[in-house]
Amino acid sequence: xxxxxxxxxPIVALIAGVLILIMPRLLNFIVAxxxxxxxxxxxxIIK
Length: 47
Fold this sequence. Notes:
By secondary structure, the chain is an all-alpha fold. 74% of the residues lie in helices and 0% in strands. The protein has 2 helices and no strands. It has helices at 5-22, 27-43. The protein is flat and about 30 Å long.
């Protein structure tokens, strides 16, 4: 099984959702990291 961005985003979303439910203070960090990664990938720096 190969993992692509199509498979990776739902997995990251599930993990982030569980972490936010467990520790709500992590919300700011999780959102910030997610937005940075999406921006980097969108610019084509990481393929």
